[in-house]
Amino acid sequence: MVVALAALGGTFSPAAFAEFDRGRALYENHCRQCHDSWAHNYEGRAVANYSGLRERVASWSLHSGLGWNAEEIGDVTEYLNRRFYQLTK
After folding, report:
1. Which of 15, 45, 70, 79 is the most buried (most CB within 10 A)?
2. Which residues contact 58 (CB under 8 A, 6 or more apart)?
3. Are the C-beta atoms of residues 26 and 67 closer than 8 Å to each other?
4. CA trace torsion 42, 66, 64, 56 (10° rounding)
5. What's the pTM value of the predicted model, to 2 decimals?
6. Residues 73, 15: Cα–Cα separation, whole Å
7. Domain-by-domain residue ranges, the chain?
8. 29 exposed, middle or buried (CB, 10 Å; 0-12, 13-18, 19+)?
9. In Å, what is the CA distance from 63 to each residue of 5, 59, 83?
Protein backbone atom coordinates (compact mmCIF):
# COMPACT_ATOMS: atom_id res chain seq x y z
CA MET A 1 0.00 0.00 0.00
CA VAL A 2 2.77 2.42 0.91
CA VAL A 3 4.57 1.61 -2.33
CA ALA A 4 1.38 2.27 -4.31
CA LEU A 5 0.93 5.65 -2.62
CA ALA A 6 4.54 6.58 -3.29
CA ALA A 7 4.21 5.51 -6.93
CA LEU A 8 1.24 7.83 -7.29
CA GLY A 9 3.36 10.71 -6.06
CA GLY A 10 1.41 11.07 -2.84
CA THR A 11 2.97 11.60 0.51
CA PHE A 12 2.53 8.96 3.13
CA SER A 13 1.73 9.92 6.66
CA PRO A 14 1.53 7.01 9.09
CA ALA A 15 -0.82 9.04 11.29
CA ALA A 16 -3.19 9.69 8.39
CA PHE A 17 -3.14 6.02 7.43
CA ALA A 18 -3.87 5.00 11.03
CA GLU A 19 -6.90 7.32 11.07
CA PHE A 20 -8.44 5.60 8.04
CA ASP A 21 -11.58 3.74 9.08
CA ARG A 22 -12.48 1.14 6.46
CA GLY A 23 -15.87 0.49 8.09
CA ARG A 24 -16.75 4.15 7.79
CA ALA A 25 -15.53 4.29 4.18
CA LEU A 26 -17.56 1.22 3.22
CA TYR A 27 -20.66 2.59 4.93
CA GLU A 28 -20.35 6.04 3.39
CA ASN A 29 -19.69 4.66 -0.09
CA HIS A 30 -22.31 1.92 -0.15
CA CYS A 31 -24.95 2.50 2.53
CA ARG A 32 -25.25 6.13 3.50
CA GLN A 33 -27.29 7.19 0.48
CA CYS A 34 -30.21 5.11 1.82
CA HIS A 35 -29.32 4.70 5.49
CA ASP A 36 -28.30 8.08 6.83
CA SER A 37 -28.30 8.63 10.58
CA TRP A 38 -32.13 8.52 10.80
CA ALA A 39 -32.03 4.77 10.09
CA HIS A 40 -29.94 4.15 13.20
CA ASN A 41 -31.48 6.63 15.62
CA TYR A 42 -35.22 6.10 15.38
CA GLU A 43 -36.93 4.66 18.43
CA GLY A 44 -38.35 1.52 16.80
CA ARG A 45 -35.08 0.25 15.34
CA ALA A 46 -34.82 -3.52 15.09
CA VAL A 47 -31.22 -3.88 16.32
CA ALA A 48 -31.04 -4.72 20.01
CA ASN A 49 -27.62 -6.35 20.40
CA TYR A 50 -24.20 -6.50 18.74
CA SER A 51 -24.74 -9.85 17.04
CA GLY A 52 -28.05 -8.56 15.67
CA LEU A 53 -26.25 -5.54 14.25
CA ARG A 54 -23.68 -7.78 12.57
CA GLU A 55 -26.45 -9.97 11.14
CA ARG A 56 -28.19 -6.87 9.79
CA VAL A 57 -24.99 -5.63 8.11
CA ALA A 58 -24.39 -9.08 6.58
CA SER A 59 -27.99 -9.23 5.36
CA TRP A 60 -27.78 -5.83 3.68
CA SER A 61 -24.47 -6.79 2.11
CA LEU A 62 -26.21 -9.71 0.40
CA HIS A 63 -29.42 -7.78 -0.34
CA SER A 64 -27.46 -4.95 -1.96
CA GLY A 65 -25.23 -7.28 -3.96
CA LEU A 66 -22.08 -6.03 -2.25
CA GLY A 67 -20.81 -9.47 -1.30
CA TRP A 68 -18.70 -8.21 1.60
CA ASN A 69 -16.45 -10.72 3.28
CA ALA A 70 -16.46 -11.35 7.03
CA GLU A 71 -13.77 -8.73 7.66
CA GLU A 72 -15.67 -6.02 5.77
CA ILE A 73 -18.90 -6.91 7.58
CA GLY A 74 -17.00 -6.71 10.87
CA ASP A 75 -15.50 -3.33 9.97
CA VAL A 76 -18.89 -1.83 9.09
CA THR A 77 -20.46 -3.36 12.20
CA GLU A 78 -17.73 -1.83 14.37
CA TYR A 79 -18.15 1.56 12.74
CA LEU A 80 -21.94 1.55 13.16
CA ASN A 81 -21.64 0.42 16.75
CA ARG A 82 -19.16 3.18 17.61
CA ARG A 83 -21.10 5.85 15.73
CA PHE A 84 -24.73 5.03 16.55
CA TYR A 85 -25.42 2.03 18.77
CA GLN A 86 -22.84 1.62 21.58
CA LEU A 87 -23.89 -2.00 22.08
CA THR A 88 -21.85 -4.38 24.22
CA LYS A 89 -20.21 -7.31 22.47
Report:
1. 79
2. 68, 73
3. no
4. -40
5. 0.72
6. 24
7. 21-85
8. exposed
9. 33, 6, 23
Question: Which phi and psi (to 5°) does residue 45 adopt?
Answer: -60, 150
- Reported residue count of the chain is 89
What's the CA gap between 8 and 38, in Å, rounded? Answer: 38
- Please provide the DSSP assignment of the chain as one string: -HHHHHHTT----HHHHHH--HHHHHHHHHTTTT--THHHHSTT-S--SHHHHHHHHHHHHHHTT----HHHHHHHHHHHIIIII----
* pLDDT digit string, tens, across residues 65-79: 999 999 999 999 999
